[in-house]
Design goal:
- By secondary structure, the protein is mostly helical.
- Helix content is 82%, strand content 0%.
């Protein structure tokens, strides 16, 4: 979980520097709420994966698949909520969300593969 917090802080520093350095037409003003959303989803999925690793290792695959589906549904609900509220510059918002979604997914897979290699 600490790795997720550090990853989010590094992303926040990058976004903050980019926002302060000048006009950034590719960065949506609600990047902070996106980072908070992804950090909270990472925390929830981390707890779900811990439950999958406990007791019976055979339950790991269903727990992992459930975490993928949960991330997708929560992401769709988040984007739907913001679009329903009438967020400005929709294309940039969706593009920022998708880039963060891919970054966090790659980060999760990398961390999980490191943990699985160690346990083999």
């Amino acid at each position: 979980m600490i790795r997720s917090v550090v990853f989010t802080i590094l992303l926040a520093i990058g976004f903050f520097v980019a926002e302060r350095s000048g006009p950034t037409p590719w960065l949506h003003p609600s990047w902070k709420s996106m980072l908070v959303f992804f950090l909270s989803v990472s925390f929830l999925l981390h707890r779900l994966m811990e439950a999958g690793f406990q007791n019976n290792r055979e339950k790991f695959v269903p727990f992992y698949m459930a975490s993928i589906v949960a991330r997708l549904i929560l992401g769709l609900a988040f984007v739907g909520f913001f679009l329903f509220r009438g967020v400005t510059d929709r294309k940039v918002f969706i593009l920022n969300f998708l880039v963060l979604y891919i970054c966090y997914t790659i980060f999760e897979i990398y961390g999980l593969s490191r943990k699985l290699r160690r346990d083999l």
